[in-house]
Structures are given as C-alpha cells and as structure tokens.
From TrEMBL:
Name of the protein described by the UniProt record: 1,2-phenylacetyl-CoA epoxidase subunit A
The keyword Oxidoreductase belongs to this UniProt entry's keyword annotation: yes
Native source organism of the sequence: Kaustia mangrovi
Superkingdom: Bacteria
This enzyme's EC code(s): 1.14.13.149
Pfam families from the UniProt entry: PaaA_PaaC
InterPro entries per record: Aromatic_CoA_ox/epox (IPR052703), Ferritin-like (IPR012347), Ferritin-like_SF (IPR009078), PaaA (IPR011881), PaaA_PaaC (IPR007814)
C-alpha cells in the first residue's frame, strides 16, 4: 500500500467521514475491524450462557420475563455484529467455526461462573454498565456498519444495566442475607469488570493505531476510569463496599485512584479459558449441533420458494 493512499485514507478519517464496506481501505484497517467486531460478536453469543443459567431459577415471573428478554437481546447483538463483520469480506460460518474450534477470543468476563441470583444483578449493573461505557463511543466509530449497529445495541444495553441495578437495589433493601448476597456478587464481579476494558494503554498492542483510525474513540484506561467514576457512587447508594482497599478519590484528577489489577488472572483467563471456558465452548458446540436441523429446514424451504418463483 503506497504512502499516498494511506495518507488520503487518514485524511478521510480525520474529516470524520464514515468508511463504508466498498470503500478502499488499508488491509490493516480491515483486519483489525474483523478481529474486533468478531470478538465482540462472540462475546455477545457466549455471554448468553452465564445469565441463561438463571432463567429457570429467576425468583418471579417478572424477573424471568426481563431476563429472558435480555438474553435474547444478546443473541440479537451477536447477529448484527456478525452481519457487520460480513461486510468486510468474511463469512459468518468462518467466524462461528473459529469460535467452535476454540481459536477465537471472546471477552474474559464471560468465563466467570454465575453462582447466585445476585450475580444476575451484578452482571447487569457492572458488566452491561462496562459494555455501555465501551460501546457508546463505538457509535462514532469510523466504520459505518459497526457504528450503526452500535446504536440499537447501546439502547438495549441501557435497559440491561437498569434491570441489573434494580435487582441489586431490591436485594440491598431486603433481608441481611439478601444484602450479603449482593455484596458477595460485587466482590466477585468488580475486578473482572475492570479487566473487561483490556490491558493498560502501555500494554495495548492495537490501541494507538485504532485510536488514529477512530475505531476506538477512547483508550482502555480512559474508559476504565470513566466506569469507576460512574460506578463507585452507585455502590455507595446501594450501601455496598467496593472490594478495593486502595480506592480513593483523587481531587487533583477529579476521579478515583484504584489498586493494582491482577493481570496474571487476566492472562490466565485468556490463555486457559478461565473457570468456565471449556463449558462455554462445549455448550456452544452442542447448540450448533442441536440447531442443525433448523438451518437445514430453513435452507430447504428457501430453495423450494426460489424454485417456485422461477417456475
Ligand atoms: N477479554 C478478552 N480479550 C481481551 C480483553 C478482554 N476483556 N481485552 C483485550 N483483549 C485482547 C484483545 O482482543 C487483543 O487480543 P488479539 O490481539 O489476540 O485480538 C489483546 O487482548 C490486546 O488488547 P488491545 O490491544 O487493547 O485490543 P483492542 O485495541 O482490540 O481493545 C477492547 C480491546 C477494548 C475489548 C476492544 O476490542 C473493544 O472495544 N471491543 C469491542 C467491545 C467488546 O468486544 N466488548 C465485549 C464485551 S461487552 C459485551 O459483550 C456485553
């Protein structure tokens, strides 16, 4: 790729023009987008499992209806995102195959187990809260199909975050046992939620280039900081304690300082699939096999319709 082309492309980005699928683009831009969008899609699909685990055990009909809707939304997000990735010249089948073979990355957060009902509250509040922090700026991402997909996704994530926080609020206003359950969930989900934003900027291999290409609009550390600043007062309102002895308000920067993140845990989750990684992929494979007849029937039906129309 010659310099002039790369420069002209960067100028388009700097003018805030959206890049569309048929536009010429540097190979690296295409590659990093396929990587990020497909990892994002896989995260949504795998993310259905930890919460799906509680659908049959939701404590009331109202809670069950909300949780069902939320898990279905995640499935929908995965499908928009696969469709956005397909505009870059890969097929959904290829991407799904990479996931089923355990070759594709998905968000570290979805390898953790959901041990109690309070975890459903904590996931909505913290995990979807973190997802919103990260995804609202992606609505202004330079690649058109990704940016547009993010608009609806973010509206739905906002509902997910509220339903999670409301579960936490109900538990915190309940019996001492319920409040203890909420605290235990916060204790287990806090640090993994901070890890969702990815490595520190100094370690983020794609960070600088993706900021320049406006795929990312904020760095990993900047988003993590925004999340901490927004979430600590919410924990205080619930009467819960954030499990970080070093957490302190820093007047000068106008934000919180936090203690060190356990990057060994993060790296081990990425490497070995963490606590539930193997189950997540095994369940996904089983779902793929169980659903094969539906795909075959849909393809046969489409073929029949096409033949009829041709007649
Ligand atoms: N879990 C798993 N892998 C991660 C995580 C994480 N939380 N954070 C970073 N990584 C991986 C990156 O994918 C990259 O791996 P690769 O080179 O093998 O592809 C590596 O660690 C280095 O990280 P960065 O250079 O910082 O990568 P990047 O610039 O892509 O930033 C980020 C990572 C912030 C996750 C970015 O890709 C992003 O914004 N993605 C879209 C949002 C998303 O995927 N959210 C998923 C969870 S939210 C949800 O599904 C509800």
């Amino acid at each position: 790729e010659d310099e002039a082309f790369l420069e002209a492309f960067q100028e388009r980005i700097d003018r805030e023009e959206k890049i569309e699928p048929n536009d010429p683009m540097p190979e690296g831009y295409r590659r990093t987008l396929v990587r990020q969008i497909s990892q994002h899609a896989h995260s949504e699909i795998i993310g259905m499992q930890p919460e799906g685990n509680w659908i049959t055990r939701a404590p009331s009909l109202k809670r069950k209806a909300a949780l069902l809707a939320k898990v279905q939304d995640e499935g929908g997000h995965g499908l928009y995102l696969y469709a956005a990735a397909e505009t870059l010249g890969v097929t959904r089948e290829e991407l799904v195959e990479q996931l089923l073979q355990g070759k594709a990355k998905y968000s570290s957060i979805f390898t953790y187990p959901t041990l109690s009902w309070a975890d459903i509250g904590a996931i909505g509040w913290l995990v979807d809260g973190a997802a919103i922090m990260n995804q609202v700026p992606l609505c202004r991402c330079s690649f058109g199909p990704y940016a547009r997909a993010m608009i609806r996704v973010c509206k739905e994530e906002s509902f997910h975050q509220r339903q999670g926080y409301e579960i936490m609020l109900t538990l915190c206003n309940g019996t001492p046992e319920q409040k203890a359950m909420a605290q235990d969930a916060l204790d287990r989900w806090w640090w993994p939620s901070l890890m969702m934003f990815g490595p520190h900027d100094s370690e983020s291999q794609h960070g600088d280039q993706n900021m320049a290409w406006k795929i990312k609009r904020f760095t990993n550390d900047a988003l993590r900081q925004k999340f901490v600043d927004a979430t600590v007062p919410q924990a205080e309102f619930l009467g819960l304690k954030v499990p970080d002895p070093d957490l302190a308000w820093n007047e000068e920067k106008g934000g919180y300082d936090i203690g060190p993140i356990d990057w060994d845990e993060f790296r081990s989750v990425l490497k070995s699939g963490g606590f539930c990684g193997r189950d997540r992929i095994r369940n996904r494979r089983r779902a793929e096999e169980d659903g094969a007849w539906v795909r075959e029937a849909a393809a046969a039906f489409a073929e029949k319709q096409a033949t009829r129309q041709a007649d």
